[in-house]
Amino acid sequence: MELRTVWWEDDAVCLIDQRKLPHTMEVVRCTDLAAVAYAIRSMQVRGAPAIGCTAAYGMALVAQQSVALTPSALLTELVQAKATLDSQRPTAVNLAWATSRMLRRAEAVASEGVEAIKHALHAEAEAIFAEDLAMCHAIGEHGASLIPPRGHVLTHCNAGGLATAGYGTALAPIRTAFAQGRPVHVFVDETRPFLQGARLTAWELLQAGIPQTLITDNMAAFMMQRGQIDCVIVGADRIAANGDVANKIGTYGLAVLARYHNIPFYVAAPSSTIDLATASGADIPIEERDPAEVTHIAGVAIAPQGVRAAHPAFDVTPNELVTAIITERGIVRPPYLAALRQLESGR
Ligand code: MRU
């Protein structure tokens, strides 16, 4: 059975509280825009495609609750809601991609009246969710062929079902290869400071029965040196037009290590993560999060009180370190500027 990260139920946006996993499975009901915005900012829901889906449902919720009497008044509310949602997390482009698509849909049916906008936005949010799930399965089909015969894959953060509508991006080729009966063993980076690897990826792989070994982030180099890793597959929060990839902090280091050890470094992402309007990684905004997420784990201080800490939540991997990008429409290889443009024009 596939895990559902976010869904619409009884006039609310519901989601699994990913901050509580793996120990507690708790559902959060967001009944207004503020709750949806908080869920995204606080990482109750996280992962680029999942926050895109959540924001889409959030826009539908705003429309549903609106008492606007005219389409133009409702559109104004939706523009404000989009600004609120987009500002919660700046790096993952899927968020603004989803809210832009919702707004375009509202504008397209505005001439039919307020009720038409409400219906259209609900359907559009469901469509965004369903398309994301389908894209993840397609990424799995394309990417499975890249997993080397022994199947030792290193992944970072959580780019699994929890980070998407389901099935995942980086985990999709792994799931598909495993389902095909091929040997797979996943080395799961713990992913400091938020521990998405230890808490979420390890949990998902356990549920799926896929063999894994959890490692701390600083073990990856040694594992590669010992020949234990055959390839790296990670997700992405934004892929710039030139193929530079923003993903969870620590990804860039893995890409450098992979190059040194001659190990393929793959990025798996749906086309909603590709942002041709952003020329290169230098133009991608990097989210700075609360340093308390570095000095504390699960609310417990692990550093002396008053110490200064930094918390850039993402880094940028230069395109020359990326062996290939696995999308729902196929595998993209360098030179990325032309290849990504061609991929987008084929939409
Ligand atoms: O801060 P997070 O947990 O939202 O970061 C998630 C990642 O970096 C993922 O690798 C990325 O969003 C891809 S998820 C399919």
Fold topology:
Elements: E1 6-9, E2 12-16, E3 27-30, H1 33-41, H2 48-65, H3 71-86, H4 93-109, H5 114-144, E4 152-155, H6 171-179, E5 185-189, H7 196-208, E6 212-215, H8 220-225, E7 231-234, E8 238-240, E9 245-248, H9 251-260, E10 265-268, E11 274-275, H10 292-295, E12 296-297, E13 300-301, E14 314-317, E15 324-327, E16 330-332, H11 336-345
Parallel strand pairs: 4-5, 4-7, 5-6, 7-10, 8-11, 10-15
Antiparallel strand pairs: 1-2, 2-3, 8-9, 9-14, 12-13, 15-16
Helix pairs in contact: 1-2, 2-3, 2-4, 2-5, 3-4, 4-5, 5-6
How would you sum up this structure, described in words?
With 347 residues, the protein is of the alpha/beta class. It has two domains: 6-137, Four Helix Bundle (Hemerythrin (Met), subunit A), CATH 1.20.120.420; 139-345, Translation initiation factor eif-2b, domain 2 (Rossmann fold). It is 41% helix and 17% strand. It is built from eleven helices and 16 strands. The chain has helices at 33-41, 48-65, 71-86, 93-109, 114-144, 171-179, 196-208, 220-225, 251-260, 292-295, 336-345, and strands at 6-9, 12-16, 27-30, 152-155, 185-189, 212-215, 231-234, 238-240, 245-248, 265-268, 274-275, 296-297, 300-301, 314-317, 324-327, 330-332. The protein has a seven-stranded mixed sheet with strand order 6-5-4-7-10-15-16, with helices on both faces. A four-stranded mixed sheet has the order 11-8-9-14, covered by helices on one side. Strands 1-2-3 form a three-stranded antiparallel sheet. Strand 5, helix 7 (196-208) and strand 6 form a beta-alpha-beta unit. The chain is globular and about 65 Å long. The two termini are 30 Å apart. The model has no long low-confidence stretch (mean pLDDT 97). It binds 5-S-methyl-1-O-phosphono-5-thio-D-ribulose. Residues 46-49, 92, 157, 159, 163-164, 169, 196, 235-237, 247-248, 313 line the site of 5-S-methyl-1-O-phosphono-5-thio-D-ribulose. The site of 5-S-methyl-1-O-phosphono-5-thio-D-ribulose has 17 residues, from helix 2 and strand 9.
